[in-house]
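go over this chain:
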Amino acid sequence: MLATTSVGAQSIGVTSISIGDPLGKPPTAAERVLRVGIDLQAGELVTTGAEDRCHLLFLDGTALTVGPQARLTLDKFVYDKDRKLGALTLSATQGMFRLVGGKISKTVPITVHTPASTLTIRGGIMMFKVAPIETIATFLFGYEMTMSGAGRTRSVTTPGWQVSALAGQPPGLPILPPRGGLAGEMRTLEAPGVRPGDSAADRAAQKSGFADRNSGLGPAARGPIQGGPQPRHGDGSGPPRDPMLRPPLLQGPGDPPR
């Protein structure tokens, strides 16, 4: 099967979980609510409201969790399942997301364009927060995540480190967030438990098992998630190392030699 942007009506994936009323607008069709089982199309615009979340599963096994108040376009998807080769490009203008690379990302990085930068992920998982003037991306595990902007590229290969960029400026050096610093972002995506005062969407997500059934397993999980690779541990197998054991790759174009 080959899915491309040239065949607008061809399915490139499916909505696997839907909380609230996330919307999808294909290039040549009417906007509709992305209920479970709804096919996705290349060029589709996905938007969520304050009480919405959804989980999108592409034909190659790539999985994307979309948080509330998000706006995302599925720009390009090409996949040859026999050769397990293809390309995936997305554009996100706002919201919180977690991307779990499938078969495509094992050979070709997945690309995400944002107002402030361009992200890539190869054979792994990243979580990223997009605002009109800033993008913050965290490498959870895999082979490599990059952020590019204003002529400079930062590469992160150590799980747990993050990098950010302001619009019109190069990305900064990777940093290690403080312990528990990602809890709020994780909760935005997963709704892991119902607490007093939780929204209706949080309660619905907990009841549906949203966090447990998809990328809610988080960076401490063992083994592949939604078709992604095994976490790297020296020889490429086993759980991810403690981020403090090995510094991230900080070298970028224009930096002095290390």
